[in-house]
């Protein structure tokens, strides 16, 4: 081959490579299988368990910092009953008892049932626990699995769901997620959309609690608050924000020294998960700002290599819906995310799917002239998964030109899964709800941000010391072309 043809070949290979790496993809596929209307209240998806005052809307969340506790929550409609949880590691033998508390609230003309929260702590790692709530003939039994001990190579599967609501599309998303083997849900805000009803009808908070029970009673859902969870209605005399949300969904915020249930952190397996509130003050010197600054300093990537942030409003979003709404928080927190090498920031709010490349815009200030986000190896990947399926429908209008930072975007319903394999690699899928089937659509391999830039990591990699490392890389790099 002559020099000219060799150069031409090299040029073509480079062009292909650059196109592959730098240009994003806007999928023309949009999918809304069912109408964007809520499931009727008498549908079996919202079935009320049989019997007087039977516990309903059962859900659990992590109860401490490291995963040795759960908070079990449920509602009894007619009377408080008991807030006890009986539990144990042997089925039908509930040798331990934990005592919880109950609360209730009114919202204009709605009066909630009795909402129980019970902390069950001192659990063993990696153990299946069975639990029973309620009394007599209407007692109900469930189970959950505790996570592995905090360890940099502990494998774990998270699901990511946002803006779920309660339509048949929502149900489809939930059921598809339940087929994935996901062990914990990272929920990025906007739960029931009860605020779309007259007087923010609390009945739709109750139906949502029953909708998600088939997953949330058996595995933790890590809660993030969204705008549809604010329930601020001064015209109805309802001025305390997040009232139904905070009564119903407990979070272990005290364990991470947070002053509010709306922002907190948990560690689980090999992940450190930070939850932020887009609708609470976050500028410099606010409680959330102080807390996040302290929490980021505490992250130990030697123990929890995967640093994940959840928030409702995306910082990078090229959809016309909610365009630039995350800009204020980006201006405050983005430089920290880059400094601490956050792996992924998950958000919701925009009812579509979008994934960014690793970019930052931290050099911008009003005089720098640096106006555009630029590739930045230390930056997180930003993923918007506000496509759970609520009654507001899809956000189908992306900006005409896909910005350079945007890698993939599609206006369809779905959810994501993140499989942490060890300290260096994770597999990520976005799964579209496609004609009632679960279709993995956008999939990539994540290279851990801490271990990927760490000299010791590189020498360890050379010696193939991580569990399954060599075979895993070979297998998945074959299957998934995109590595970030
Ligand atoms: Fe939202």
TrEMBL record:
Enzyme Commission (EC) number: 3.1.3.2
GO biological process: phosphate ion homeostasis
Broadest EC class assigned to this enzyme: hydrolase
Domain Calcineurin-like phosphoesterase as annotated: residue spans: 158-353
Stored Pfam families: Metallophos, Metallophos_C, Pur_ac_phosph_N
Catalytic reactions on record: a phosphate monoester + H2O = an alcohol + phosphate
Superkingdom, natural source: Eukaryota
Domain Purple acid phosphatase C-terminal: 379-437
InterPro entries xref list: Calcineurin-like_PHP, Metallo-depent_PP-like, MPP_PAP, PAPs-like, PAPs_C, PAPs_N, Purple_acid_Pase-like_N
Keywords attached to this entry: Glycoprotein, Hydrolase, Iron, Metal-binding, Signal, Zinc
Signal sequence extent: 1-23
Residue span, Purple acid phosphatase N-terminal domain: 55-146
PANTHER family linked: ACID PHOSPHATASE RELATED (PTHR22953), BIFUNCTIONAL PURPLE ACID PHOSPHATASE 26 (PTHR22953:SF55)
Family as reported in the entry's similarity comment: Belongs to the metallophosphoesterase superfamily. Purple acid phosphatase family.
Protein known as: Purple acid phosphatase
Native source species: Musa acuminata subsp. malaccensis
